[in-house]
Amino acid sequence: MTDFLRSTLYLAKATLREKSFTFWVLLFPLLLATFYHVALSNIFSAKVESIPVAVREESFAAYVFPETGLFDMTLVENDEEGIDLLEAKKVEAYVNKDSEMVVNSLTGVNPSIIRSVLSQMEQIMLLGDAANYLDFSNSPVRQEEQKTNPMAVYFYSLFAMACFYSMFGAISSCIIIQPNLSTLGARLNSSPFKKSTFILSSFFVTMGLTMMANLLLYAYVVYILKVQVFLQPLESLLLLFMGNLCGTALGYALGAIEKLKEATKTMIAVLLTNFLAFAAGMMSLQVRFLVYKVAPLFAKYNPMSILTDTLYQVNNLANRDNLLFATSVLGVYALLALALATLLLRRNRYDSL
Where do transmembrane segments lie in this chain (predicted)? Predict the structure, then answer.
């Protein structure tokens, strides 16, 4: 027990001194979270405003539009006045006396809303109902309060990537115990100190420090940036733990490859985590949809996609159906990676130390 505690303390200090761990695990996720908050906070807070329209006085729309609460209406006496307002871009559309819409562009949200109201008005009038009795309670635009911000999906993918940055600590731990890569490894292999105790303590340190980094990121996002992303904390913590477990196991498997240098292993870890995060939609949701279309099997079993999807479902949709699948797949990945790491690390032989 004493050897375990001593090696745990040593490894914790050594890991925190690692520049790659400090930057990629602690600082980089915080920087990305800040970037997301600055870049995306205004996109999803937009509200539907009144649409400026010009309407001929003789049109039935002059009676209907005020009832909808959607339009800032300007009454005009003739077509020339309405067209002038439209060309001056003071209104989004002009409705003539026959309730026909004239616009500069056929595309866009506002023309679609105007067209929808006019279409509903025309259909009811064809049934013989007077325009004054039109029911616009079923508005084509409806605003609802949501518990979570739509940009939360980007933060879930960020947390998924941050979990897999536990690979860096695991790689460093593997390098320490390999005598051909570190002087400490040579001393450990020639001493009575049990390698299994060192590996167990390094695993504990890597998991613990990365989970602490994830909690720091959580506190920063929730309490500093004021973005509420974890409505179900217990399920979310379970997923983050499984993500850290999977990332740590992959780090050990990569770090146990004897012939690769430390810089090469770190570079592979950076490329792998960023590629998986990119495919999961961390940079763009369009990329995510494209991956699902082109390579659906890869998208389904991409560990970061699994984490992102399940975190979104649990916290935004209150849907736990995918929770068992996510934890099971991540657990299987971790077991396979640990088995590979064990196979690579055990019974190594060296000509000289």
Answer: 21-39, 153-177, 198-225, 237-257, 269-291, 323-345
The CA dihedral of 118, 120, 122, 127, to the nearest 10 degrees, is -170
Bridge-based pairing state of the strands 51-56 and 101-102: unpaired
d(CA 217, CA 161): 12
Provide the token pair at 264. Answer: 């090469």
CB of 33 closer than 8 Å to CB of 224: no
- According to CATH, the topology of domain 51-133 is D-Maltodextrin-Binding Protein; domain 2 (3.40.190)
- Residue-wise pLDDT for 209-262, tens only, equals 999 999 999 999 989 988 888 889 899 999 999 999 999 999 999 988 888 888
pLDDT > 60? residue 142: no
> Exposed (0-12), middle (13-18) or buried (19+): which is 257, by Cβ within 10 Å?
middle
Sheet holding 51-56, edge to edge: 71-76, 51-56, 93-95, 101-102
Question: What's the pTM?
Answer: 0.68
Q: Where are the domains of the chain?
A: 2-42+149-345, 51-133
pLDDT band at 98 (very low <50, low <70, confident <90, very high): confident
Cα(303)–Cα(239) distance, rounded to whole angstroms? 11
pLDDT in tens, 274-324: 899 988 888 777 788 888 889 999 999 999 999 999 998 899 888 898 999
Q: Are strands 71-76 and 93-95 parallel, antiparallel or unpaired?
A: unpaired
